[in-house]
Amino acid sequence: MADSITITNNRTGETIEIPLVDGTVSARSWSSLLPGIWFDDPSFSATSGADSAITYLDGEAGLLRYRGYPIEQLAEQTTFLEVAHLLVRDKLPTVTQLKAWQSEIAEASPIHENFHKRILEGFRDDAHAMGVLVSSIAAMSTFWPDSKDIENPEQRRDETTRLIAKMPTMAASAHRRSVGLPYVFPDPELDYTSNFLSMMFKLGDSPYEVDPVLRDALDMLFVLHADHEQNCSTTTARVVGSAHADPYVTVAAAAGALYGPRHGGANEAVLRMLEEIAEFDNVDDFIAGVKTGDRKLMGFGHRVYKNYDPRARIVKDTAHRVFDVTGMNPLLDIALKLEEVALADPYFVDRKLYPNIDFYSGLIYQSMGFPVEMFTVLFTIGRTPGWLAHWDEMLSQDSRIARPRQRYTGPADRDVPSIDVR
Length: 422
Ligand code: CMC
What we know:
Layout (H helix, E strand, L loop, with lengths): L3 E6 L4 E6 L7 H7 L21 E4 L4 E4 L2 E2 H7 L2 H10 L5 H14 L4 H7 L9 H15 L9 H26 L13 H10 L10 H14 L6 H11 L4 H12 L7 H12 L5 H9 L18 H17 L5 H12 L2 H5 L7 H11 L6 H22 L26
Antiparallel strand pairs: 1-2, 3-4, 4-5
Helix pairs in contact: 2-9, 3-18, 4-7, 6-7, 6-11, 7-8, 7-18, 8-9, 9-14, 9-18, 10-11, 10-18, 11-18, 12-17, 14-17
């Protein structure tokens, strides 16, 4: 059987045969038969918007791979910086490459003192850390005007390193500003995640003692968050980048998308939901409210995963390792009961709603001492290499500016009435 689709325009009798390539048909070939007719797909759920060699995701089978490597093996065997190298430099690093990459990152991790004084200090004390971070990333564009040379691969490489390096520094500073603690400068002797924990939690002059179990768990969570192909924020990065905006405003736009509770903001929303449920006995009432459409079960459901989210399974296992160190998070019982009730209920089963990565990650972050406002900030640190890998890939391709069409539903042509008769 031919691997193609034949379409006939019944208005003209014209026919076109379009080949099926890697599970897609070319909308441009299709539209050559249908001039002036657009594909109606507002949430892009039936649209492939990119050719990408970065991440493979099979939602039905629950598979996730970065450049061909299964997420389970990466989570078990690699660090976040190795995965970041894999994403933005195409390969897992050798020992020598990793050393060089760690030095580049350490060198680029400080942020300008003016940035602390003039930008971070300008926010209200109660400003949400994610709002501060999104604005801070955009503000970096004014410190690095050369970053506008986006057609130069060397420049893109430098900005990519800078953004991955500075993200934890900005994130920790956003937190310390909100709690009135002095900023901690990065320590080049520490690995990426230990350095972030130290910048977050260090008090006084003595070095911050990093617990290796907690450091490894957080590092692994960064690995799990590092990329997820054409999710809302990555698509945002590709769309904004397609206008040739600089990488700082591009990543700020992506982080803005991530902030939403349907996307990366879900980890914070899950924690707030668990705190609101508060008692084991309130779970059934809460689930009843979800089924009548009053509420959403945050941390459940996914556009692509319809059997399970492979990341959620790893996060759930990690939670137990973390709780052995930090003590049990009392909200875990409520989360486990919610999961048990939902997975046995036809409402969730019929709609193929399963826990996603955000369902258990917040419990881990909370037990490690992160305030709830920092949860999506942690997701941002993890996702930064993914956004930048897609941005660079898109600019390396023969990309055109992203510019979809619309179905117009407004009034027909009419005359402007004078102001006194409106
Ligand atoms: N709780 C209750 N019902 C839900 C939920 C949920 N969390 N998610 C989807 N549904 C229902 C939805 O109401 C719809 O029901 P019906 O067919 O009766 O109208 C059906 O399931 C299909 O949902 P949908 O809205 O078509 O699904 P979507 O693919 O457009 O949305 C989602 C995906 C992740 C935005 C959504 O499931 C959701 O809002 N989940 C809660 C937020 C969340 O946990 N987000 C994190 C996603 S994973 C991390 C990341 O990548 O950001």
